[in-house]
Each structure stands twice: as structure tokens, then as C-alpha cells.
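Appendix C: a fully annotated inverse folding record. The material below is reproduced so that readers can follow the format used throughout the book. The structure is listed first as C-alpha cells, followed by the designed sequence.
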């Protein structure tokens, strides 16, 4: 039996043409888990660097992936998958076939998520990691046990307090910066680095936790607070989006907590 050709007026959706390549799909899968550099991707997909770079360029042109120079080594670039855009493209692709195939976005919080311990790390523990800790605690209703620390702790930045209060109604005034050494020997389910520098010095934790890197620019630039506040707003938006998708992963991997009998 021969497979009929597509009608001349039928074209594959752009997302299928872009993401449907086997190697590009594998790259997307790796970036869905963690931000990566090219040399890491080449090892993970077992393909030469020039080929991986070529397909990364295609994904960047399609705005599914973005790149940002590493703050640890400016010669390196971290690549990040835009999960929200991929989700919208998947939904549009399904909807083009049938309206019932449109996807719904992942929930920001999920009562099925079992208890998980998550540690967020950045260099100063003065902004990104503290903001992430507060967001995931609030959105999980305390079900996720979140912590944060830094390799070179600094006082909590006033803009971190302000943006959490104004954008999310959260009070960080009782939060204090901590050195990551205080968590040495403790067990976590997830260890998430938010800073390229701290990723380079992140210690190993017992129990083989899931280690993930989110390469997020530091909003603390040394400029006056009113100048950097928009950067903190952008950071809060990015953290909230990533944490929303993290909840979907936690709900998928963690068994639902048992309900007590009345």
C-alpha cells in the first residue's frame, strides 16, 4: 500500500516542522529539564558540537530557545527553553487539527503534589533564590518545603522585598541570607541553581537530588534601586513562570498525600 501524498494546499504547522526533527526534539527535551551549555548538550545527545549548534540556531530562530552569556564565564552561553511558548505552540498545533486538542496551561499549584524539599541557590542569596523560596512556599500552601542559600551571602536587597510585596503580596521582611554550608549533609529532592557562578561551586548533597540550573540574570547590578527595580520585576515574572512548570513536574513525580479518615 502506498502512502497518499499531502494535498498541495496542506502544509505542516510551523511548530511541527521545527520541533519534529529528531535531534531538535531531543535538544528540547534536555532544555526542558535544565538550562544547558552547548558542550553539555553535545554529551547528552551524543552528537558533534557543530551539528548541535546548527539545530540550536534553528530553535533560536523559531523563538523556542534563547541564549544568555554565562555570568561565570562570558565565553560560555546558557540556552533556555521557553516552556510557555512551546506550550502555546503545541496548543495551537493541536487546535489546528481539532479544537478539542487545545492544551490547557499547567496549574500554578496542585493539591496532589506530595511533600518535596527544594533548595534554591544563588551567589548572594539576596534576591533570586529568596524570591523563588517565597514564591514556591506561597503557591504550594506550604506543601513544598523550600529553602535558599548563597555561596557569598549578602543582605536581602530592598527591591526583592518590594517586588514580592507589590507583585505577589508576600512579605519577605523576616527572611535572612544564609550560606549554603548550613545545608551540608541535608537531603533535598531538588537542588536548583539560579546563578551561573554558584552552579560552578555547588556541593553534592546526599540522596542524589534532582539538580537543575535556571540561568537567570542577576537583577542586582550596583545601580540605584529605582533604576534596577524593573529588573527585579522581570526576575519575579520569570521565576513565577518557571515555578508554575515545576509544580507540574512535582505533581507528576510525587505520589498524592494520603487523606486522613474523618
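Designed amino acids, in order:
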Amino acid at each position: 500500500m502506498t502512502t497518499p501524498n499531502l494535498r498541495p494546499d496542506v502544509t505542516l504547522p510551523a511548530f511541527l516542522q521545527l520541533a519534529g526533527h529528531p535531534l531538535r526534539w531531543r535538544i528540547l527535551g534536555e532544555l526542558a529539564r535544565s538550562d544547558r551549555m552547548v558542550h553539555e548538550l553535545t554529551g547528552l545527545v551524543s552528537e558533534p558540537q557543530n551539528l548541535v549548534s546548527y539545530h540550536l540556531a534553528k530553535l533560536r530562530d523559531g523563538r523556542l530557545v534563547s541564549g544568555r552569556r554565562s555570568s561565570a564565564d562570558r565565553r560560555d552561553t546558557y540556552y533556555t527553553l521557553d516552556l510557555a511558548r512551546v506550550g502555546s505552540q503545541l496548543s495551537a498545533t493541536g487546535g489546528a487539527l481539532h479544537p478539542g486538542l487545545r492544551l490547557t496551561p499547567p496549574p500554578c499549584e496542585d493539591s496532589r503534589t506530595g511533600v518535596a524539599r527544594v533548595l534554591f541557590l544563588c551567589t548572594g542569596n539576596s534576591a533570586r533564590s529568596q524570591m523563588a523560596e517565597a514564591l514556591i512556599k506561597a503557591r504550594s500552601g506550604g506543601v513544598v518545603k523550600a529553602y535558599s542559600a548563597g555561596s557569598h551571602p549578602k543582605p536581602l536587597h530592598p527591591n526583592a522585598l518590594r517586588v514580592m510585596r507589590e507583585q505577589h503580596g508576600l512579605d519577605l521582611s523576616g527572611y535572612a541570607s544564609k550560606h549554603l554550608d548550613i545545608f551540608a549533609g541535608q537531603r533535598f529532592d531538588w537542588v536548583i541553581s539560579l546563578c551561573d557562578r554558584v552552579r560552578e561551586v555547588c556541593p553534592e548533597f546526599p540522596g542524589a537530588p534532582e539538580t537543575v540550573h535556571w540561568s537567570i540574570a542577576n537583577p542586582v547590578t550596583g545601580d540605584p534601586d529605582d533604576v534596577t527595580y524593573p529588573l527585579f520585576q522581570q526576575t519575579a515574572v520569570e521565576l513565577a513562570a518557571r515555578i508554575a512548570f515545576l509544580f507540574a513536574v512535582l505533581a507528576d513525580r510525587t505520589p498524592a498525600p494520603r487523606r486522613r479518615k474523618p
